[in-house]
Amino acid sequence: MKTLLLFTTLFFSTFVLEDATAYWGGTLVYMEVLPFWVAYLAVGGGIFVGDMLLYTLGRYGENVKFLGLILAKIHKGIEGHTLYHWLSNFVNKNFIFSIVVSRFVPGLRLPLYYLSGRNSKSIALFSVLCFLLVSIWTYGLFTGLSLLKTKFAFISSFSVYQIFIIVFLFFLVVLKIFTILVYSFLDKAYLYKILSLRYYEFWNPNFFYIPVVFYYFYFLIRYWLPPNSISCVNPCFKYGGMSFDSKYDMLSKFKSFDRYITKTVFISPLVNKDEIDIEKIMKEKGLNFPLIAKPDKGHRGYGIKKVSNLKELNDYFENTKEAIIIQEFIEYPYEYGIFWLQIPGEQGTIASITRKSIPLIFGDGLHTLRELILKDKRARFIASVYFARHLKHLDTILPKGEIFRLGIAGNHCQGAMFENGVGDLNEAVLNKITEISSSIEGFNFGRYDIKFKDIETEEGQTDFKIIEVNGSEAEMTHIYDRKHSVFYAYKILFYQWKMLFIIAKKNMKSGIKPISFFLFLKLYITFFFKTKLPKLSD
């Protein structure tokens, strides 16, 4: 009875956690709880049946009424992703190889077996391959554990649970290393993503900012400030200019300098989009296509899209539930991030100037866009971003001399290149930005994103447009210039956060109150955990 129960448990557990169940079955054999062939048939049989079910789901699932609706919805959400197309092409071009590789690489089996069925690959060949591979894999795993017992007798003193944990962790590490090697071999974009870790500019922000988080709490204690104190750094903005502040409201504070502000229209999420007369609004504001559409509350360039006609704009409306803004598309060729810093009562200064540039790909008449991106010395390190953005053009061979722009958004995480731009702008431009900043009462800390028509104009000419203003969460983005070290980057970040708290302390002493802690917490949680912004931009 016990044997039958374990057999059934192992068999059906493979449908949920295949690898973990295989290790558990091997451990039961190792500890002589189950005979070798009982565990072998339970694990191997369960895995094989699961493989065939995945294939069947892919091939015939859409023909089942209720299931078909679910699958159709899933397909609609994933068919635009680069990985989906890459895996589908991989199955079509390398069917046998893809099945063999997926047996030994965690994470590949589900999509590749499902796509094998969806792409109508031979069911006979698929079943034979799976049967052989499952037999070899399961037998090899169980035999390996038996050899482990023979070679390392001291392990016999461990309990069945300890053995399972040891075996599971060992295989987890080995398979992880193997997975990285296989993915790197199969997908060059994945390889360069691994190699990009050499440069801190490509590190995940959640990892990169760990030291800053500790520094943040250090300053809270040092200056005896509440976490919500940063909301009073810029009293001119509702919440200090944080990510959950309205971009439209922040730009509106600069309306006295209308000549330098990008024309912007706010669309509330509460209005019925079907009743909005977009053409009338555009005419009133003097806007023409193309336009830029983006979330009114956001960060890291998420959700920015260039729309060239009314249909594209309406599609953007339909796909968002948040407030949005539409702006004139400024075709000026130069973009800079200019950081303003002012301690209340003292003279302000421009603390950072960042030159932003979008990488360009030059066609040679021989290689596809995909190949040219992977050949570019910088673009290849964030190829996955460009691949997802230009999915439809990846296999297009660019004519010789054709220039292909890889993006529009001047955000680092969207692929823009940041360099230290000190010395690029003339005195007249810097004086004008200082004049604008100083005239806005309560604007102490933040960054302008500005486009310039020309940076080599004669002294006195100041032809530029402010696209966006960022407040208390803004970065001095020149830190992402690869010429600098990670230690320099942290030095600048620590400095700007120190200044942030000095300003907050001074404002609170003068009677300016931050928003309540509970409101701060609510806004933070709502924006960062509940607001769904599309991470990919144009």
Keyword list:
globular, D-amino Acid Aminotransferase, Chain A, domain 1, 4-stranded antiparallel sheet, single chain, 11% strand, 538 residues, 2 domains
Number of domains: 2
Mean pLDDT across residues: 84
CATH class of the largest domain: Alpha Beta
CATH superfamily of the largest domain: ATP-grasp fold, B domain
Write a brief caption for the model.
49% of the residues lie in helices and 11% in strands. It has helices spanning 2-13, 18-30, 36-60, 65-78, 82-93, 95-104, 109-118, 123-151, 160-186, 188-195, 205-208, 210-222, 247-252, 278-285, 310-318, 369-375, 383-389, 427-439, 486-509, 517-530; strands spanning 264-267, 291-295, 305-307, 324-328, 334-341, 349-357, 360-362, 403-405, 417-420, 445-452, 464-470.
Element layout with pairings:
Layout: H1 2-13, H2 18-30, H3 36-60, H4 65-78, H5 82-93, H6 95-104, H7 109-118, H8 123-151, H9 160-186, H10 188-195, H11 205-208, H12 210-222, H13 247-252, E1 264-267, H14 278-285, E2 291-295, E3 305-307, H15 310-318, E4 324-328, E5 334-341, E6 349-357, E7 360-362, H16 369-375, H17 383-389, E8 403-405, E9 417-420, H18 427-439, E10 445-452, E11 464-470, H19 486-509, H20 517-530
Antiparallel strand pairs: 1-4, 2-3, 2-4, 5-6, 5-10, 6-9, 7-8, 10-11
Helix pairs in contact: 1-3, 2-3, 2-8, 2-9, 3-7, 3-8, 5-6, 5-7, 6-7, 6-8, 9-10, 12-19
